[in-house]
Amino acid sequence: MTKFDEATQAIRVDESTYDVCLDPGYSIGGPLNGGYLMAVILRAVVDASPHEHPVSTTTQFLRSPRPGPAKVVVEQVKAGRTAAFTRARLVQDDVAQLEALVTTATLTAVEPLYAEEPGVAMPAVDECVRLPDPRPESGMTLNAQMEMRFDPPTIGWLNGAPTGRPEARAYFRMAEPQDPDPYVLALAVDALPPVVFSAGLRGWAPTVDLTWHLRALPAPGWLTLLGGGRLIADGWFDEEVEVWDSAGRLVAQSRQLARVGRG
């Protein structure tokens, strides 16, 4: 069991309840990363499902849970031969923190009937750069859990030179050697800095709603994250992320709605 597996572990209490312990190592300056929280929920949902993989997940982030003990409560809505539908809540101190609707199925390694190429060509990994290590007092512990190498133009905001477009692109893998799986993908779809940083905005940008789809089981190696947005208006922005594996296959897609950064 890797550190990430342990940090997302869900222990069955009864047919609808799982005990979890939210790990402070996945903090982004205080709040816990949304992708990490989704991975915790998905551990419980898949354990309770007759199917192996979370192919579609929609999550509403009602509150910001703190590290420590919590529960995942699952409710099976419908289960069939090809898919099952489950409602799940992450509960802390008897208060719902996140609500999710998850579709599970069992994917196989079949060749796609149709597949597009990535819309953006990434430089080689060794031509991409790391973000500076955060100061210890920042509480940005998430950075230590993963390795990311960024396409240089998309982090121009670090030096006061944002591109003016909502975008972020990077290679991603866990800091501890681990082949990517659906739970790692749940983290990956929310691992990029908010795309509004590249548009010239800053601050914590809380996610309100995030939907992501597992499209294929990823091959070992680096994942490629391609993030962008279409509209920033009235204090809101959208963020879309594609995740491509080392074999050049689209393995995950996400779209989230978030508040423009503050603080």
TrEMBL record:
SUPFAM superfamilies recorded: Thioesterase/thiol ester dehydrase-isomerase
InterPro entries attached to this UniProt entry: ACOT8-like_C, Acyl-CoA_hotdog, HotDog_dom_sf, Sec_Metab_Biosynth-Assoc, TesB_ACOT8-like_N
Domain Acyl-CoA thioesterase-like N-terminal HotDog: 25-106
Domain Acyl-CoA thioesterase-like C-terminal: 126-260
Superkingdom of origin: Bacteria
Pfam families, A to Z: 4HBT_3, 4HBT_3C
Protein name as annotated: Acyl-coenzyme A thioesterase PaaI-like protein
Source organism per UniProt: Nonomuraea dietziae
